[in-house]
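Input:
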Amino acid sequence: MKTKLLSILSIAAIAIVIGGCSKSNNNNSTTNTTTLEGQVLTDFSNDLVNPNYQDIQTKASIMNDAVQALVANTTDANLATTRTAWKNTRTSWESCEGFLFGPVEDNSYDPDMDDWPVDKTRLDSLLASSNPLTVSDITPLETTLKGFHAIEYIIFGVGGTSKAANITAREKVYLTSLAQSLYNTTTDLRNSWDPASGNFTAQVINAGKGSTYFSSRQAAFLDLVGSMSDICNEVANEKMQTPFAAQDSTLDESSFSHNSTTDFTNNITGVLHAYLSEYTSTGGHSLSELLAAKNASLNNTLLSEMKAAIASFGTITIPYEQAIYTQKSQIKAVQVSINTLKTSLDNDLTTFVKTNIKD
Amino acid sequence: MKKIKVIGVLIVFVLLLVKCQKSTVFPADQYNDQLSGGDETVFDATSKSFGNIFPGLTGYDVHVHILGDLTFAQTFVTAPAIVHGGLGPIYNNTACTNCHHNDGIGLPTAGDQQSSLLMRISLAGTDDHGGPLPVPGYGLQVQDKAIFGKLPEATVNIVYTTQIVTFPDGTQCELRTPTYTLSNLYTPITDPYLLSPRLAPPMIGLGLLEAIPESEIIANADPNDANGDGIKGHANYVWDIATQSKQLGRFGWKANIASILTQVATAFNQDMGVTNSLLPVESSYGQSQYDGLNDDPELPDSLLNAVKFYAQTLAVPARRNTTDATVERGEAVFIAAKCVTCHKQTFTTGVDVSRPYLSNQVIHPYTDMLVHDMGAGLADNRPDYTATGQEWRTAPLWGLGLYTAVNNPGYYLHDGRARTITEAIMWHGGEAEASKAYFQNLSTSDRNAVLKFLQSL
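Output:
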């Protein structure tokens, strides 16, 4: 699923050196960083993942309330409130995509909430039918009929042209169930890491120390770094590249809401969050701190590349599905910026983890 | 820029190899047993370790692989659609990756988005090519999902009963015996029918397996047990849609598919209902679910070929801990148990000057690519070309120790009935009965050494 041409070669080379040739290891601060490694895993979980997942759940609850208000009183003002609630939920969700590993992938919460494209033919048929549309009715439906983009399709409409007066009775029923269903999935996601529930947090914190999921801390860190790289690849080389290369706006993911550039920005912001172990408040011990202790220049490089990639989206000043036609050089520059970061993650940061995190 | 870096790294790599060889890193026979996929091995043991591109790909090949990767991950929707249409009308899943999670082995359930088990179906007898005989109204595969307004062919029901196997040291192992039935048939099947469950297999190293010379595979066949070792592996010869000819079967749990192109085209058509140039007729043709749309083939050739290339060029993860003393002892016991008679460690792929990344690679797939009688316990009792109802292809074991990381918790065997490697071994019967018994009667430490060795693959 991921394409790591350069990294694999260099990792192969390095691994052979480490495995075969090197006879001594001159790391002299092993004790300090070993303690720090554990603190990083703890604070990554407690200062970022848990608060982020909790925030998604909170925002999804607000959206669920907004949908109920819209259905009860279908005004353009309530529609606007619902759209804002959708975008706010989207923001917290997209930033957690900076570190997609663990239950969010294993339990398929990601496709359940965020599959694409919407199966419009089928959705229209479903709405035109008299099939029941309660939450339990829509639970077994394909993911292309549920989640963020199905909700987006109804509340924004093609080209963002939806009006409150045009929302049909069937759409209201469906929308109510979609919002509740999304909220339910965000609850499952939140619970999966919650120490009081599924507690995947313990699997991460105890990596290499009794975790049944991560046989070593290195494995946990490599999954984290791999997930940071994966989202860079997904944004620059898939979500941005596919509609851009084809010069086809229908291939743009969040085109109903004109929200794609915001989505992309939040994805890469999530990478920075993961690196700093922070969500909305200042984080605790982080991967950045670990690097600062052993390779300060690489830490500075990574921080500046992350910030540069996030800032570069500012040059795309119109909705992405329009920018692919008229802001080509800006899009290319953003892609270069993200791929520069991706290369550093694949090569330098991965090598750092393999070289320095040995437990 | 990228190319220069690649070449630079390659030069470093080669220099290091040369340097390292002097310090006895490699065994005397000039290969490194860590490198399961030869040059197309990657040093990655994470949950994404089955999804790496061949390190040896460059230039346009990288682009095609990436396009295939994107298509493999793409969810298809009901036709007509602006993008990615063509799903169904009847199907098993909506995206390749839904069954092949992380390019790994699937989840042994049916009917859910993340389900990776499908049922082959046929009547007794054979078709014109010697293959299974389709069931009228169903074909050769049960599609248990359908688009809006259409009926799935059936519901697949899976029920397990359990039994306990006890090792001499008192350790117990619970084996699950599955029973598969169909219900909610959309139309009755009047004749007795045969079912065979098939779990989505891992995607790693398929191109390398395809590149093993046929002669090298046939050389290990011993259908009449001429050497008297009790092992009677033989090749399966199957109808290949891509070449319209009988070919050596290499893929699928019964070696019932000859080429990756045929496999990919068949999966699009049968698993997802997406027609393509090799199989342009809907799986529902002639049935009440047929869409009647004049939109076939639904998948462009560029994407069909890209997914084929993607499947051909997924790298094999390197072994871990190969110099660990217990792992080395486990390997010795594995050999002593004669597991390697079928789980053949090493092949060399054929020379292919047009595709250097597949050419002349020393690989360690741990399969002989032949089908063997595995006993009544594992039997599906549904012949598939020359593979009988008790025969299965020797499963490649490379990557085995990463199933848990890639597909937590990971499942094993053709229908995922085994939840651990120990369970998988204990299901072996037929030609493998003696090796299974050997394993079962090992001392605790030797048994654990074998398992640790298998975890290193």
